[in-house]
């Protein structure tokens, strides 16, 4: 891998700028409905920005395998539509009031309309993918959707309860890393690559997605609310134990564990404050542990594509893990 330099952010943007713009246009076209409220909600969510990392991964995966067809644009829109549908439903489930620094869609249109708009986006993403006439694409998307729904249900069952690291990694694979993995695998599916190539691309996406979610969870605990674009420590207030918290629970004193359990059970910082929890995490090196774990997964992502032929797309794929672990929102 040392023979191939890692791309810069500018090089990645220059490489993908036109394709990402085309995906935005495709998303806008595919999410237009005769029912105005569906179009309005979809356009509102698209205008809210986001990193577009999932379509970016699909583009890089397909480019690394030599794809030049419209399939990469169509499926780039599909994975972003699927991601958007999950955001709509997640905000309803979590009773979120903000998303990316703006009111969440459910605070504007209400839960009922947003549930149905999310359902419509799910179905529209499959309708769009069907245009590929590619059974492997549909297999990947069906399995992905089942995993994400199972992950959300499992998380709801565990709210307010203590979980171990194995359970945590299973949850974040289903909820986040699975979509990263499938975004990479779709690049192989549309180029009819062999199973081994699809597997290594999927492994890259899995490792990257785990790193992404660990960082996301860490930022939820530590970031500035203005930068994060939503209330900090939302996970603890919702009763979710994330990696740094699990680490501190396993290593803390009886008083430390009781303080964390109290917050998870009360789903608020009524009896124990957010700064008190941060002090416990810092004292046990739990935030550093989570960051080190994220960086290890990021490096594993890089290593998993070592056998890919050298290309500008591969250089860009080597850049993405560093972007994921160094972001502040």
Describe the protein's topology.
Blueprint: H1 9-30, H2 36-47, H3 53-64, H4 71-93, E1 98-99, E2 102-103, H5 105-109, H6 111-130, H7 135-158, H8 165-190, H9 195-222, H10 225-228, H11 234-237, H12 243-251, H13 254-266, H14 274-283, H15 286-304, H16 312-326
Antiparallel strand pairs: 1-2
Written overview of the protein:
The protein is mostly helical and 329 residues long. The protein has one domain: Farnesyl Diphosphate Synthase (Orthogonal Bundle), CATH 1.10.600.10. It has 16 helices and 2 strands. It has helices at 9-30, 36-47, 53-64, 71-93, 105-109, 111-130, 135-158, 165-190, 195-222, 225-228, 234-237, 243-251, 254-266, 274-283, 286-304, 312-326; strands at residues 98-99, 102-103. A two-stranded antiparallel sheet has the order 1-2. Helix 1 packs across helix 4 and helix 8 (165-190) packs across helix 9 (195-222).
Question: Which architecture would the CATH scheme give at its second level?
Answer: Orthogonal Bundle
The termini sit apart by: 29 Å
Give Rg in angstroms. Answer: 20 Å
Question: Secondary-structure element sequence?
Answer: HHHHEEHHHHHHHHHHHH
Annotation, overall tally of beta strands: 2
Indicate the percent of residues in helices. over 70%
Average pLDDT value?
A: 94
Q: Remind me, CATH topology? A: Farnesyl Diphosphate Synthase
Sheet with the most strands: spatial strand order: 1-2
Overall structural domain count: 1
Shape: globular
Give start-end ranges of low-pLDDT stretches: none
CATH superfamily: Farnesyl Diphosphate Synthase
CATH level-1 class: Mainly Alpha
Largest pleated sheet:
2 strands, antiparallel
